[in-house]
Design brief:
- By secondary structure, this protein is mostly helical.
- The longest helix has 22 residues, at 16-37.
- It has helices spanning 16-37, 42-52, 64-69, 73-85.
- The radius of gyration is 19 Å and the shape is elongated.
- The chain has one domain (16-85).
Length: 86
Amino acid sequence: MEGVADLDDNTRKFTVVDDLAKEMKITLTTVYNALQEKGYNPINQIVGYLLSEDPTYITNHLGARSLIRKIDRDELLQELVKHYLD
């Protein structure tokens, strides 16, 4: 077959877990910054959201509330505990 030799023979990694962790970090940082800009204590507000799953703990500023709701809360908690213990 012509052209087959031109294909890259290197194996590529598919890392969904790493991408998900990066996405969660970006989202959490955006939410943190939005809360801080609005004058809230970001840590208290994020903890309130994580404990209750009540989105009103998160401001709508910068789309923070809709962003954090896209992340599975259990996965976010797992990632936070993982990084705390590392």
